[in-house]
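Morning F.,

Quick status update on the modeling queue. The single chain you submitted on Monday has been processed. Sequence for confirmation:
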Amino acid sequence: MSNNRLGIIQLADTQFGNKHAFESVEKFVSSLHEDIVSLASKHRFQPLYLIGAGDLAETGTAEEFSIANKSFVLLKEMIGIDTANVLFVPGNHDVNWSLAAAGKICGNKRVKLANYDHFVSTFSPKNYRNIEQLDSHYPVILDRRNGLAFILIDSCEKEDDEHHGGWVDTQKLVGSLRKLEPGPTGSQALLKLAVMHHRIDTGIHTDSSCIQNQREVEAILASHKVHAVLTGHIHELAHYAVESDGWKIVYSGCGSSGVDLSQRGDGVPNQYSVHVADLGNASFETYFRAYNPKKRSMSGIGRWADDTTYDQANCKFSMDWVPEKRVAANIFVEDRLLESRLAIRKNPFLISNAEKIQADLVLKLFVNDETRHRGANRLSGDAIIRGKRGAGKTMCLRYLDAFGSMQFRKAVEERVTAECFPVFVSLADVHPSEVDGPAHHSYRVAENLIYDRILDAFARADDELNSHEFRAALYRLRQRLKVLENQSGSKMAKLGTAIKEHMTRIFDHVLILLDEIASVFPKQFFHADQSNFSQWMNTLRSCGPFNTRITVYPHDNSDILNEDRFGSIVNLEYNIRNPVDLKSFRAYATELVNRYLESVAIDVLNPPKIASVIQCMGDHEDDALEQILYASDGSSRRLMRLIEKCIDHLLSKVSQNSPLSKNEVIDVIAMYSSGLTSSMTSTEISLAQSIAKACIKRATFRFQVPLLSQAVKNLHSAREELNIISVVELGSGQRGNTYEFNYPYCLERGIPTHHQKDSTRICSSRDAINGIWIDKVTKLRREDLDFFEACDRLDGEIIAISGESWGEIAGSDGKRYLSDSLPVSINEGDRVSFVANEDVAFDIIKL
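Structure tokens below.
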């Protein structure tokens, strides 16, 4: 993806509640995720912001916003958007009429949006920190690094149980826009995007559909040189540019993303938009999407496709916009509260995705743990880099890419042969449909992607280097490829031949940095015969000057990726229950956090340290850092998120500037855990709480659930590092899997994790001075869990059995359910009673 093309996903009118069109949150989110990933690959943009342009709920109830929270949390996690980059404005359906009536009685007009305010505050406290004091201006979100500014306008100022219509407080609007005056040169360094629910145009259905003071608002937007206005409300697309006071504004309404057919006009589908801000070309382009319930997708029937309402060629606008260099953005203070409390310009931990960090910053932030990274942090040879999600695998590849590129440019300037030419290849760019089929398809897709990425990297280097020698060599390579084009042999072999003949005077080898391999390709790609992964790796080694770094998950069932014949095995895992590993991770985490803080420090000679945020007391039972290390479970990404939340909690303290104590950090970790469960179904939450209750009674956090593995599957497999349960040992034979609750959930629910040393009594302080980790595993059966007492049971018939325990059940409600835990005595045709969760059956009893 190009770092210069920034994607802004705009949804509106999801209206979660009784008017929502999609049968489940998962269906809605998975269809959007699949479409956005495909668009990002096709149009070469990085999804950066997710906008909810109002009417997220149907009647503004807490229950509806709980569903909305689950949807937006899942979507932003799946497409890799940072929490602080999920932005909202309220719509008329987000106003709760009962609360609005109560607000009139108590004299607080903001009460009507109490449920909405709670919802948005869970995404970014910084963006909405003073939401109850928004009397002088609307929230303004500045992203100077990328040259973007969002003005989040409340067009429901007058909306209540009696008055229905859009209206904007112009004084607050002017107060907001004054924060975005152009620089001394007069150039527009920020692309200004206003977001509001109601539309400004008057050529629409009813007066209540547009804001009542639209002419005044439009004049203000034009005079302050706002570039685009993103809206919702009307359940159909609108996109056009208007000249006002000599200034061009693009108005873009994205249609309704989630309301059912009763709320849409005849023939109008559900719709959403993707805007791409192109920093390199100073342009703003929009792609319109429409949902077709009859088209097939990877996840079933129903998918998004091009919306033909507008001619796509007319939806790209050049902008009067000259983004400042991103590195210069470090001089700006983005949060005055952070400046006064921690002497930093912004919270650096908001960015959790390594692919979004600029190359120059990667070099500063990357921490090299010699015990872990040795074997990977060299520019020659091959290596397999193992680590669970969030362990820092992608960051390691990004570092090698940045460091290798730096040495390559230096070698070209000094006219010596560079050690390598690095090329980063993320196989997440591959759409699932491209590898759907026989395993050998994966081989061809991988070859084509690597081939294209290497040639793209050569072209970029040619543009940047201004080297006649490199340009001449690249010209000869391209000519040689044309000659080889019609000859036999693989594309990589031909490329290898051309590189050996024309480029090895400039660099010794191409270092291919392969990310996301095991998560994209099918299992058979790694297990089948020599026509698949083995042949691919052997081809890379024999067909040209190629070295590789490949990232994999340590417990992936693709054992072939753990063989050192494909390179040195580099393990980024930390076992925080091992004292030696805990000590190593403590040193690594401390340096990592300190580097992040230093990157945004106001006084670079005296930057704040981790001890400015939380109490770091070493070998002491009140050490707060130890709790963060336990909660992160050795994951760099989770560590970043926890420190981010610690900083937010620190800022919420009224006057105290001291770092967070152990008890305060425990509160932060418990709140973090509650955020993990917010994206779970009520059934999953109830089941987890029931298991937790049973574990508390038996004084452990580790358990087995024979014959109930399908019931707990979503608790450990659906959300990866955001799960509250993990599998610590796979079962075999009659022995089931061994599970454990993660540390944040244990803190939130009071589940014991430590024994006192030399005792079986619970260690409530949960520290290494007084306690040791509990290793007891309890076996839980159906009768141990009160969850099943409250479950509705269904009757059904076994209609198919596959293998020892897999089967399909036709339920008495007319639906079909799958199970992987059929009792041994069950046969096809048997009548059974079972508990259902979504389309999964468990706790099956023969009738």
